[in-house]
Amino acid sequence: MQPVARPTTWQPVAVEVSLTTTDDAVRVLTGRRIVALTGAGVSTDSGIPDYRSPDSPPRNPMTYQQFVGDEAFRRHYWARNHVGWQHMHRTAPNPGHRALARLEERGILAGIITQNVDLLHQEAGARNVIDLHGRYDRVICLSCSRVVARAALAERLEALNPGFAESIGAVGDIEIAPDADAVVAETAHFRPAPCESCGGVLKPEIVYFGENVPRARVEEAYALVDSADALLVAGSSLTVMSGLRFVRRMARDGKPVVIVNRGITRGDVHATVKIDDGTSEVLAELAERLSPRPSVQVMAARH
After folding, report:
1. 79 and 225, same domain (yes or no)
2. Is 160 in the same domain as 193?
3. Annotated binding residue at 122?
4. Which residues participate directly in catalysis (predicted)?
5. What is the pLDDT of residue 167?
6. Same-domain status, 2 and 69
7. Which among 34, 68, 189, 222 would be 20 to 30 A from 129, CA to CA?
């Protein structure tokens, strides 16, 4: 299984794709059972910045090795997350999330594999969602594996650090990364909370850079991809193998891949259609124009 680590060899290189319009995507996807693979770009219109779009500032997310190996790194992370979590909790689905949920409801979309941890697909109404990189609303103990709600931890962190979030400014004025990490400089005085059961180290139930996606979750995603006739990638540069492997799988099997993303992606060489545009607009149009597969229409008529 491939680690979710940033590749050091791939550099964005433009690949010419002959099909580049929404009309092309409609022709390719019509009548097919579709699976969506989404990345941070699908949530930017909800106010959550991504990592690699052309306008994104440079970001260096904390790695798994840093988190588990250095207490100072953990303190720094939890201080920033304590602020950023409040922002994530107030975000709402955008038209792209809602469009995918409509496609699923109509039987066109079989499910969503998301690299995001923000749960906005579920809030939009999508039911079959694989959270490939975990969820921001849960925390796990690295010693006893106990899982607790992030909301419960927030109360403990606030009790240990009264007024910390307010002391650094309003959440709306602070830059938030896709994993709920806020850009906060001074964190040395922050007090993290240990596991209430065993005193162990708590970690968000999120797959960090340099950490492996659980095998069972990967196999579930492969099974969903293998059941589909086409893959719709939305808002992902596909820089990490975690998402790219599903694009390669579809291409290997001779199934069409439609990519909607601003800027070059690592999967462009496998794309049947590549639309360089915003996900909200394109997904909303696809939801309006794609019709259910014939078998789905027949079943709906019988009921």
Report:
1. no
2. yes
3. no
4. 133 (proton acceptor)
5. 72
6. no
7. 68
Say yes or no to pLDDT of 187 above 80.
Answer: no
Active-site annotation holder among 76, 97, 133, 270: 133
172 CB contacts (<8 Å, ≥6 apart)? 87
Q: How many domains does the chain have?
A: 2
The residue range of the domain holding 282 is 1-48+93-133+213-303
* C-beta of residue 22 within 8 angstroms of C-beta of residue 285: yes
Predicted structure pTM score = 0.85
Q: 3-state SS string over 47-88?
A: CCCCCCCCCCCCCCCCEHHHHHHCHHHHHHHHHHHHHHHHHH
- Specify the CATH number for the domain of residue 155: 3.30.1600
CA dist 88 and 92 (Å) reads: 9
- Is residue 46 annotated as involved in ligand binding? yes
Task: Determine whether the annotation assigns residue 44 to a binding site.
Answer: yes
Q: Quick one: 61 exposed, middle or buried, by C-beta within 10 A (0-12, 13-18, 19+)?
A: middle
89 a catalytic residue? no
Sequence-separated (6 or more) residues with CB below 8 Å from residue 170 = none
Q: What single string gives the DSSP state of each residue in 25-51? A: HHHHHTTS-EEEEE-GGGGGGGT---S
Other CB atoms within 10 A of residue 251 CB: 17
Last residue of a domain, one of 206, 231, 258: 206
Note the maximum CA span of the chain.
64
